[in-house]
Amino acid sequence: MFNPKEEKDKIIKFIKAYYDRYDLGGVVIGISGGKDSGVVAGLFAEALGPDRIIGVTLPCHSKATDKNDAQKVSDYYGFKMINYDLTNVFDAFKEQVNLLGNFTEEELKNSDINLKPRLRMASLYYTAALYTALTGKTYIVAGTGNKCEEYVGYFTKGGDSVSDIKVLADLTVDEVVAIGEVLNVPKEVLYKAPNDGLSNQTDEDKLGVKYKDITKYMNGEPLEEDVYQKIKKLHDNSKHKFNIPTYRK
């Protein structure tokens, strides 16, 4: 049976061991105002101390409430928070795209959604390089994706798929929440309906399935046939995200 306190302690040990092994300085975390980044922040705050954490908010045509919730996480754990408003960067990029031709909103929708996490990834790595230079100790970027998201490929190649250390990737959504309760992640963050902050839809709306059903699927538990097939299709269609075909001479 899953014990969130024991699992939390194991993750803390994992983080400490990795940082000690490579003599690392600190961590950069994109703080979205959602539960995953809130739990990751709580884990690193306990493992490293808040003075070695740089939280980054990355609004891009986003809801103001997300930034406010991110600040609650920073305030609770006491780590430094910086803000990169990427709205103008995104708009400048789109101006160049518009020079290529006249595209419909529907044609651009998927490209637009995926551009935002790619801009965010670049910003996080820029910050990590900056604090490495400032402190003389290597800062790395923490991933915030959970097992349910990863299984169905709910991430962007070259965006939120990119990180230097992952601490939630083997935990289901329910397990993440349970660890968040142990860490006392602010309740309005921990229990907020998960969303990407990009498309004005919840994650489950976009996926068309519930996270609890993804967990059941992974555990081999019975599901309604249509739900089973949706999850299977999501998983199968995202396999290209996990393996890059490489020619070997």
Describe this structure in words.
This protein has 249 residues and is α/β, with parallel strands linked by helices. The protein has one domain (4-199): 3-Layer(aba) Sandwich (Rossmann fold), CATH 3.40.50.620. It is 54% helix and 8% strand. The protein contains eleven helices and five strands; from the N terminus they run αβαβαβααβαβααααα. The protein has helices spanning 4-22, 35-48, 64-77, 87-98, 105-135, 147-151, 173-182, 187-190, 203-207, 211-218, 225-237, and strands spanning 26-30, 53-57, 80-83, 139-143, 165-166. The chain has a five-stranded parallel sheet with strand order 3-2-1-4-5, sandwiched between helices. α2 (35-48) links the parallel β1 (26-30) and β2 (53-57). The radius of gyration is 19 Å and the shape is globular.
